[in-house]
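Q: For a teaching session next week I want to show students how multiple molecules come together into a single three-dimensional assembly. I've collected the sequence lines for a complex. Could you give me the predicted structure tokens for the whole thing so I can convert them for display?
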Amino acid sequence: MGKLLADRLKKRADFLRAQKGVRRSSAGLTLEICATPDTIGRDGHFRLGFTASRKVGGAVERNRAKRRLRAVAQAILPLQARERTDYVLIARPATLTRPYAELMKDLASCLAAAHLKLTPLTGAGEP
RNA sequence: UCAGAUGGCUGGAUGGCCGCUUGGCUUCGUGGCUGCGUGCAAACGCAAAGUGCGGGGCUGGGAGGAAAGUCCGGGCUCCACGGAAACACGGUGACGGAUAACAUCCGCCGGGGGCAACCCUAGGGAUAGCGCCACAGAAAAUAUACCGCCGAUCCGCCGCUCUUUCGGGGGCGCGGAGGUGAGGUUGAAAUGGUGCGGUAAGAGCGCACCGCGGUCCUGGCAACAGGAACGGCACGGCAAGCCCCACCGGGAGCAAGACCAAAUAGGGAUGGCACGUAACCCGUUUCCGGGUAGCCGUCCGGGUAGGUCGCGUGAGGCGUCCGGCAACGGACGUCCCAGAGGAAUGGUCAUCCAUCCGUCGCAAGGCGGAAGACAAAACCCGGCUUAUAGGCUGUCUGACGCU
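A: Of course. Below is the structure for the complete assembly, covering every listed component.
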């Protein structure tokens, strides 16, 4: 399985759909995933979005949290994500202070758990 | 050297790996447009240049002094409006200047504070009018009443006393008429203050100085300052309670506004099919003719989602010179310097840099650890206000010491 390309989620409706999908949390972040609607999805692509609420802090802190999440996602998702799937990463207050290596582990474990849960729903086989 | 006052600048650095965004050049793919050729036509082929979309390569730019709060002033956009004025409402408020404009800035004046450098000041009008002045206090705006002081003058004669020519007269005391106005513990504020004279007691009643008032002179563009003689002193405070005066002001805001425009529903035009027996409408009625209502196609305009523009050459930055005490203005040269839209301008690691803590060392310093101010453009400018670790630096004042 080769590298997948990422599209950004920008519509509020997309975020709301992901909220109803599978959710897994860890100390540094929360992950929500769901299948991309067939009319929008493209082969070889997955979709990715970020959220940082006011709980994280002011504008400076929220921007920084989203950038850290983006860096982590850039490193992991193109290799481990599934195509035609939406991923939403939600920042938590600890996202700012958690060591980078720990943040990587958080995402990897959340991803594995969420994929396992999603499998019977979509009927897709694990590669 | 110490203490203090007041401006200006800055807002971590370097490198490795991995990324984002936006220009320029170049190249590849692809779509459409135009021209030429072949062809009856559909279509196919070729082509310089321009252009939409997608990808590669090279190269350049990419948060702030407050980007913040959204408190003022403008540009810009749309809406309203014949002009002007008045009224209402809102704002501003010593004077002179700067500016596109301002509640900003500069200079200056008045008042208050500080030994000083300097700091603070919403600083028009209280005889245009209304209103308010709590508590305390005798009294809070009108000059009195109350307590108090006096009782010179006049009256009474009540008491004591001196004198007597027995009519009375004098002195002291008492009461009254009356005089007096700031002495009365207050208060934010008390009807000018202090001193001397004066008086029965007192009082600007008189005088000196200070304060106050209008007049005149001098200086200043002006606010105002200084001086002179005069007036015996009237006019309490609050306008940030209403108000009066002077000046300024249409409203809403980039979610402004302009353009492109899917699906679905609906509107209009038009063509075809069906129905033309029934219903309704029109031509007076029957007949007859036309139309509406159904289905399908094409086109048109409005318009939602969505998209594009607005959106980066500007009251622009930097440098030199000139004018001005300054704010600022002028001339010349030079530069192009963020444009996102679930929102780019970064993530991570290492070293250095300052900061703090622990520890070792006489010391220079070594080792380990923590942590890196406030705060992120959202149409753009000029200000104000507020937040801000640390660092660099100019000028000035006072005290002490030395020469």
